[in-house]
Design brief:
Helices cover 42% and strands 13% of the residues. By secondary structure, it is α+β, with helices and mostly antiparallel strands. Strands 1-2 form a two-stranded antiparallel sheet. The structure holds zinc ion.
């Protein structure tokens, strides 16, 4: 049996071609839905706003940035805490299914 180490929880899981175990994949999908909906609703929201209002962790956001689903944009005062996130829709379409499966653009 082949195992991988989950990038999110660092647990061993049965290799399935993904970088996250099943339980983390589900959590990430849910958290990513929250983040996408939040950014759509409040395009000016900062990373801190997102964390406070959606309850996702900075680690999750960083994983999503790392995966290329969203990206940080610096804002005017250049304060790291006030960074904003933009959704990279094109990336989402081209990478859809890697761990995020919801159809975003119809
Ligand atoms: Zn995991």
């Amino acid at each position: 049996m082949n195992y991988s180490i989950c990038k999110r929880c660092n647990e061993l899981f049965e290799r399935n071609g993904k970088e996250y175990c099943d339980s983390c994949t589900q959590k990430l999908n849910k958290e990513f839905d929250l983040i996408i909906d939040y950014i759509k609703k409040y395009p000016k929201a900062t990373v801190i706003d997102i964390i406070i209002d959606t309850g996702v962790s900075l680690k999750t956001i960083n994983l999503m940035v790392e995966e290329g689903y969203v990206s940080y944009v610096p804002n005017d005062d250049n304060n790291a805490d006030n960074r904003q996130l933009v959704v990279k829709i094109q990336k989402l379409i081209s990478k859809r299914g890697k761990f995020y499966s919801r159809e975003l653009v119809k």
